């Protein structure tokens, strides 16, 4: 039986048997291989983002005709004969009487029916009327000056508009005997220690305090009693939500236990807040024996808005755009920028490094000095300067960054070509009369691919991180372009908008992590020490 060897394919002939075997090793590194599959799948899906997230329907059947708005422009006049030749508002069209009352009309929307440039109308997002209640223990500090007959001389700390009491019973309806005895002891000009007691007042259960008293030459005509919340640590804040006529929250039983008069006062404040344009109202009531300042706020959608289940799963940014849609389109933008940048900069670096390494001598020395000068130019300042003069755009940013990003790979390619130019097979190619470009790119380059393949994933990760950082600083892509950096910059302005921090950061982290896993896999596959065998 004769054994026949399969002829190598074109890729294997280009890379050579050594590089090809290392690429096969890479496939055996499961973490790197699956990271490559996941990242590639995500990128391929993002190329069809218009079919995934778009405010235009995929298919629209209206009045017996079928339209494909996702790939073709249709004016409003096409559907409604209204004389408007601007793009049709498909969501308004689907809600219109003409669409709903005509039998046979139907529409197929993308999975996410929003575009990155679509600004949501806050009025369309209004949820059922909702009042949010936040109750905090009232910072009460009532000071009452009493006369000997227990009439009130003056009261400090009353709410604005609150009627002042005339006598002690107006403040403490049933004064304890111990409190009355302590007051009488002071008016009788006898020594008395500090006295504290919890009493039920018109403001709820408070702690009454009388300072220590020493006998004086003349009895005093008035004494001050202080009323404040008891310092027993049992007070706490709580929050509730009023929606569809009922209170929701873990502390909703506290509302049910309120006295009828207090419950009526709270209900009146809620109904008034729902009727009027006022957004916030504060009332002071007693709950479970403690006086609370109750803040009632009518909840309305404001931008940036938190996630809305069933509609905007990751929330809205400061302009009213869907964050999930922005993340999807920003991923495509970042990947395209990184791939184009790496392709252009690697090409420039390979060509210049090959020329330096192959020819050497004075040309190599001159180009090295030029690279040293070029690498010392401030990249960020040039980006800012060109952006202010020409304007920001994807192409300008790509060109400027490519002009500075090739330097690193050129050093490695120069070293590889310096090493390989004296090899016997290169000398043989020269003797055979092959042209210099053929020697450089058909014979030397396939044997010098290790630096390119090793550093490409890390260069992709670096490009994505740099673009995000430039967008965050405001020197990257034009305004309104979907960008992770722009979302993070908005999160800095709206510190309460946790969704603008969490989701873009998570997308950036996952993308860069997959790129690092791929780079580590390639580095391990191309490491000769890991697969070396002692003879």
What keywords describe this structure?
single chain, 535 residues, alpha+beta, MetI-like fold, 3 domains, 5-stranded antiparallel beta sheet, 13 strands, 48% helix
Kindly report how far apart the N and C termini lie.
31 Å
CATH topology label of the largest domain: MetI-like fold
Spatial strand order of the main sheet: 11-10-4-13-12
- The overall number of domains is 3
Q: Which whole number gives the mean pLDDT?
A: 86
The helix fraction, in percent, is 40-55%
What general form does the structure show?
A: elongated
Named at the architecture level, the CATH assignment of the largest domain is: Orthogonal Bundle
Classified in CATH, the superfamily of the largest domain is MetI-like
Give a structural overview.
There is one protein chain. 48% of the residues lie in helices and 14% in strands. It has 535 residues and is of the alpha+beta class. The chain has three domains: 51 residues, no CATH class; 174 residues, no CATH class; 203 residues, MetI-like (MetI-like fold), CATH 1.10.3720.10. Strands 11-10-4-13-12 form a five-stranded antiparallel β-sheet. Strands 6-5-9-8-7 form a five-stranded antiparallel β-sheet. Strand 5 and strand 6 form a beta hairpin. It is elongated. The protein starts with 9 loop residues before the first helix and ends in a 10-residue tail after the last helix. The model has no long low-confidence stretch (mean pLDDT 86).
């Amino acid at each position: 039986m004769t054994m026949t060897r399969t002829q190598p394919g074109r890729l294997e002939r280009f890379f050579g048997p050594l590089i090809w075997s290392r690429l096969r090793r890479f496939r055996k590194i499961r973490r790197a291989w699956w990271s490559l599959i996941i990242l590639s799948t995500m990128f391929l899906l993002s190329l069809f983002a218009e079919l995934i997230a778009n405010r235009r329907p995929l298919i629209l059947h209206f009045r017996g005709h079928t339209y494909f708005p996702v790939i073709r422009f249709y004016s409003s006049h096409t559907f409604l004969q209204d004389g408007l030749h601007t793009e049709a508002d498909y969501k308004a069209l689907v809600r219109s009487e003409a669409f709903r009352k005509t039998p046979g009309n139907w529409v197929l929307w993308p999975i996410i029916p929003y575009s990155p440039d679509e600004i949501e109308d806050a009025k369309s997002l209004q949820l059922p009327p909702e009042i949010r209640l936040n109750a905090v223990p009232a910072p009460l500090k009532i000071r009452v000056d009493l006369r000997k007959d227990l009439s009130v001389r003056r009261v400090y700390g009353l709410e604005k508009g609150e009627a002042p009491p005339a006598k002690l019973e107006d403040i403490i309806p049933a004064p304890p005997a111990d409190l009355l005895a302590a007051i009488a002891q002071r008016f009788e000009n006898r020594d008395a220690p500090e006295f504290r007691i919890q009493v039920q007042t018109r403001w709820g259960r408070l702690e009454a305090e009388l300072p220590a008293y020493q006998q004086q030459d003349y009895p005093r005509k008035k004494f001050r009693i202080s009323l404040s919340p008891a310092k027993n640590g049992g007070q706490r804040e709580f929050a509730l939500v009023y929606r569809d006529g009922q209170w929701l929250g873990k502390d909703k039983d506290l509302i049910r236990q309120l006295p009828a008069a207090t419950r009526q006062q709270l209900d009146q404040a809620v109904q008034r807040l729902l009727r009027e344009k006022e957004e916030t109202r504060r009332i002071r009531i007693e709950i479970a024996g403690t006086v609370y300042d109750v803040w009632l706020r009518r909840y309305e959608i404001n931008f940036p808005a938190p996630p809305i289940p069933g509609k905007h799963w990751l929330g809205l940014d400061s302009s009213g755009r869907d964050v999930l849609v922005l993340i999807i389109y920003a991923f495509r933008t970042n990947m395209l920028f990184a791939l184009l940048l790496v392709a252009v900069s690697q090409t420039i670096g390979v060509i210049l490094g090959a020329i330096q390494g192959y020819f050497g001598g004075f040309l190599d020395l001159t180009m090295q000095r030029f690279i040293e000068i070029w690498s010392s130019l401030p990249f960020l300042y040039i980006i800012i300067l060109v952006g202010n003069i020409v304007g920001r755009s994807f192409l300008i940013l790509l060109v400027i960054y490519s002009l500075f990003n090739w330097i690193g790979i050129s050093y490695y390619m120069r070293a590889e070509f310096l090493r390989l130019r004296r090899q016997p097979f290169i000398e043989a190619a020269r003797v055979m009369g092959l042209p210099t470009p053929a020697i450089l790119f058909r014979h030397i380059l396939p044997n010098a691919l290790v630096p390119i393949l090793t550093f490409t994933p890390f260069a992709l990760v670096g490009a994505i991180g740099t673009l995000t950082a430039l967008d965050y600083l405001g020197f990257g892509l034009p305004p309104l372009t979907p960008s992770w950096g722009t979302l993070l910059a908005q999160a800095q302005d709206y510190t309460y908008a946790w969704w603008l921090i969490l989701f873009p950061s998570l997308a950036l982290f996952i993308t860069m992590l997959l790129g690092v896993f791929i780079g580590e896999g390639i580095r391990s596959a191309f490491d000769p020490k890991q697969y070396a065998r002692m003879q």
